Amino acid sequence: MALEASIAEFSIKGNLEQFLIVLSVSLTVATVSRLFNWFRQIPYTLLLVIVGLGLAFVDVRLVNLSPELILEIFLPPLLFEAAWNIRWRSLKESLIPVSLFAIVGVIISVLGTAWALSSLTNLSLATALLVGASLSATDPVSVVALFRELGASKRLTILMEGESLFNDGVAVVAFVLLVGIPMGIDQFSLSGTVAKFLTFGGIGLGVGCLIGFGISYLTQRFDLPLVEQSLTLVSAYGTYLVTEELGGSGVIGVVTVGIILGNFGSRIGMNPRTRLLVSEFWEFLAFFVNSIVFLLIGDQINFASLSENFDLIVIAIAAILITRLIIIFGLGNFSNLISGVKTNWREQTVLWWGGLRGSVSIALALSVPASLSGRQEIIDIVFGVVLFTLLVQGLSTKWVLETLNLIGDQPLRQEYSELLARRVALRKVLGYMDDPDNVSDVDGEFLRYQQGLVKGELQSIEDKITKLRKEHDNLRLLSMDQLREQLLDIEADTYAELIRAGKLNENLSPVLQEIMVEAELT
Questions:
Q1: Contact 132, 113 (CB under 8 A)
Q2: Whose CA is closest to 78, among 91, 87, 69?
Q3: Half-sphere exposure at residue 141, Cβ-oriented, CA atoms within 13 angstroms
Q4: How far, CA to CA in Å, does 334 sit from each of 250, 339, 341, 347, 516?
Q5: pLDDT per residue over 187-196, tens digit each?
């Protein structure tokens, strides 16, 4: 027993040391990328992959990357953070193209990639289907961060992020359905596959809704920020584990619970201070997890094995580029015909080129059973394609955005938004000082001096706002959008307060949004 305890203690210490080394390297990269201007041109996650590749090249392995590590530890927080922050109002407007890309697009990607590999190489069709399923999951972390930094359109960001949220779930389900075929455990049949897919997705959706709405109504009963923050963390991991245990898709479950809590639960059960605290917590957690995942992706590359299967990798790259082209331009133009959301050819080009592959693809490839004869080829192809998309497509996406003139005015909009926020805050400060009940015990001369300071700063801010509005007419549209968002938030918060006070039994659907939409159509 003593020997076993010593071995366990040594193992824990070794794992902790490895973890601290990985974290230290990641934070060093993060710091260096902010200190030097040249490094700022490279998205942070891609810089981590490059550093990981450098470590792999000199044969320094930080830690063994297992599929369970990504799927059960890293994937739930990444999915939940993205789902928490995506606004249902915006996603609902783009639901038709997002659904087409995430469902029909995955089918096209799997079949197209499998056909190319099985026809042009010695891979069997069953093995090629596993490669196609692994590579059908997109990972837009770097691209979406670049979109936000450069000020690309909100619709473009929603399309890219929304597609990834849902197609991860579809891709994982497709992989699970196909993995038994090359091993002779399962046989492919259309009706059976559709039934299994609906079962996986249905269980995930059901568990996600149950936990999401349950926690939403639970947080109405108390106002404890740290407890509510902890509940979101438990919901992310708990939903994934429970759904997987019940035989459903944990990915779909986590996405569902994240969307519900981010758009419904945070409105009816959390005050604005708590919502901000939870959002900042998940922003940190996503940064933390991404830092580790992308570094380890580069670190796990085996250059010798990749070179042996170079021809397979090249064919797979060509296949995913062509299938992605069909998905985005074909389904995108079809969506333009049947939905209100229109994407032009320039936006479609960015969506096509920005379809990167990442952690989910790696995890799926590594989860292929060791008894499968083509396992190493699958892993090499997926690693090679992921490497190509991250380094070639990822590093050139900024150039594509600039060439197509899709870079927005994000720095200007950010400056203007900050000025508006400061104006609101200083007006509230003046209002507080103007109330005699708040300052009855304060010396009058001191109070007037403080009021003068605030009024002077407020006037300076007003002058800057006026100047920016005169120089940039498009900022008036930003003010209108912010007013609409504020009005909708006030309505939602009012319903939430009435529910917490016991004056309303259930949350009401927003009436202002319907009025605004009808007004725009008339």
A1: yes
A2: 69
A3: 28
A4: 30, 9, 11, 15, 27
A5: 666 677 778 8
Checking if the pLDDT of 521 tops 50, the result is no
* Contact predicate 368/376, CB 8 Å: no
Token output for 264:
């419904």
pTM for the structure as a whole = 0.75
User: Is residue 246 within 8 Å of 210, Cβ to Cβ?
Assistant: no
Report phi then psi at 389, rounded to 5: -65, -40
Residue 424: HSE in the Cβ half-sphere, 13 Å Cα cutoff: 9
Buried b vs exposed e over 162-198: b needs ≥16 C-beta within 10 Å? bbbbbbbbbbbbbbbbbbebbeeebeeeeeeeeebbe
**Model confidence pLDDT, tens digit, residues 155-206:** 888 888 888 888 888 888 888 888 777 666 666 666 777 788 888 889 999 9
Structure tokens at 265: 């639960």
Question: In 3-state terms, what secondary structure has residue 188?
Answer: coil
DSSP state of 185: S
- DSSP label at 506? S
Tell me which residue of 110, 132, 91, 50 sits closest to 378, measured CA to CA: 132
The topology under which CATH files domain 42-52+66-403 is Na+/H+ antiporter like fold (1.20.1530)
d(CA 75, CA 169): 11
Place of tokens 């939403």: 216
For 302, the token pair is 């085996």
Amino acid letter for position 144: V
CA atoms of 301 and 61, how far apart (whole Å): 10
Of 18, 95, 26, 29, the closest CA to residue 62 belongs to 18
DSSP 391: I
> Which DSSP string do the residues of 43-66 spell out, in sequence order?
-HHHHHHHHHHHHHHTT-------
The 3-state DSSP class for residue 443 equals coil
As a whole number of angstroms, the distance between CA 45 and CA 480 comes to: 34
Q: Higher pLDDT residue, 315 or 468?
A: 315
Local structure of 229: helix, strand or coil: helix
Is residue 366 within 8 Å of residue 67, measured between CB atoms? Answer: yes
CA distances from 356 to 317, 474, 493 (A): 11, 32, 38
Domain ranges of the chain: 1-41, 42-52+66-403, 410-521
First to last CA, the chain: 78
